[in-house]
Amino acid sequence: MRILFLSNFYPPARPGGYAQWCHEVAEGLADRGHDISVLTSRHQADRAAPDPQIRRQLHLDGDLLHYRPLHFFTRRKRERRENRRFLQSAIEDYRPEVAFIWGLWAMSPWMAAWAEASMPGRVVYYLSDYWPAGGDFHHSYWGLPARRSVMQMPKRIVNRLAQAALAREGSPDLKFEHAICVSEAVKKILLEKHVPVEKAAVIHGGSDLKRFLSADATRTHNGGVALLYAGQLVPHKGVHTAIEGVSRLVHDQGVRDVHLTVVGAGPPAYERELHELVEARGVDRFVRFQGPADKSDMPAIFASHDILIFPSIYEEPLARVTQEAMASGMTVVGTTTGGTGEILEEGRTGLTFPAGDAGQLARQLGRLIHSPELGARLGQAGREVVSRHFTLDRMVDEIEAYLTSVVVA
């Protein structure tokens, strides 16, 4: 098959979960003899080596950290016209048999509409987040009042112009004729938000377990109980809950031989809040911020820790980090929001706690610390479940079969 991948991000740019999946599935299909081309954004394109199969051309809808109102009026229309030309050129030059749309957060949904119009019946979506139901940067910004009172009247006037422009553009009526969801939870949530994915297949994301199964299930650190948080440092990931949980473990339960390593990065303001929280709770000796880690470093990081804390607050589509930690033999203690409950089960593959409940997190950590055999049993069970149901090979198998069914229909 000739498959055109369309995604907002593609590694090494912004290498989060679904961007990694996009890359790994593309490589997996290429290894099986399929012809792959990728059209993605120019975000962090300077970090990527040149590759004739990857076009890093598309404009994002705005700055990822700071909204720029002037951009809305001076560059947005031109950049959207260019995006449409880039897509049309990719389709005309490459002549794909199927277009495979991944994440489109931070891009206009009109990209998907143009693909559906250009390749009717041959567009497939892999939905591993909630972009089809979410608002874009522009509606979010222009729908809010100015932060400073002196700017409220000027912004109200400019708002009318912006809202009128957005109303004239309208929103595309996407068909989602062929769609795959990363979890049952994603499908359920999108249906609740009136996205037409009733017929969508569910193909769980998987991990390349060869990278993790060789990790020594008897941990390689030097003494104590080693806790790990790995992921983005953003409020909806609940990193503050992990720190609060460790504080309660130390101060309320008197556990001293414990250490939490925080791996990841995020907005400076939230990182500063986390550091201040550590200081305020008096757990400086027990919490270490390591900063972001490369994907290649993660097997060794998992192997040097005992317990993964997964404190996410929002409806996680399906987190890779829980799969990879389980594959490494770690015990996972986490929330079961969104798709996480499809892999993390209380007392079977790990231990759970309600989102934001630092007290229950501390109690679950205490159970594992005082009962090493419980952690060993859960770690082994998690490893077996991931090996059976959450492998990258299984994911590529099922996606290949789905794409083939669309092409030959």
Present the secondary structure layout.
Elements: E1 2-7, H1 17-31, E2 35-41, E3 54-58, H2 69-74, H3 76-94, E4 98-101, H4 110-118, E5 123-127, H5 137-142, H6 152-169, E6 178-181, H7 184-192, E7 201-202, H8 210-213, E8 225-230, H9 239-251, E9 258-263, H10 268-280, E10 287-291, H11 298-303, E11 307-310, H12 320-327, E12 331-334, E13 351-352, H13 358-370, H14 372-389, H15 392-408
Parallel strand pairs: 1-2, 1-4, 2-3, 4-5, 5-6, 6-7, 8-9, 8-11, 9-10, 11-12, 12-13
Provide an overview of this structure.
With 409 residues, the chain is an alpha/beta fold. The chain folds into 2 domains: 2-206 and 392-408, Rossmann fold (3-Layer(aba) Sandwich), CATH 3.40.50.2000; 210-389, Rossmann fold, CATH 3.40.50. It is 43% helix and 15% strand. The chain contains 15 helices and 13 strands. The protein has helices at 17-31, 69-74, 76-94, 110-118, 137-142, 152-169, 184-192, 210-213, 239-251, 268-280, 298-303, 320-327, 358-370, 372-389, 392-408; strands spanning 2-7, 35-41, 54-58, 98-101, 123-127, 178-181, 201-202, 225-230, 258-263, 287-291, 307-310, 331-334, 351-352. The strands form 2 sheets. A 7-stranded parallel sheet has the order 3-2-1-4-5-6-7, with helices on both faces. Helix 10 (268-280) links the parallel strand 9 (258-263) and strand 10 (287-291). Helix 1 (17-31) crosses helix 15 and helix 12 packs across helix 14 (372-389). The longest helix is centred in the first third of the chain and has 19 residues, at 76-94. The protein starts with a strand and ends with a helix.
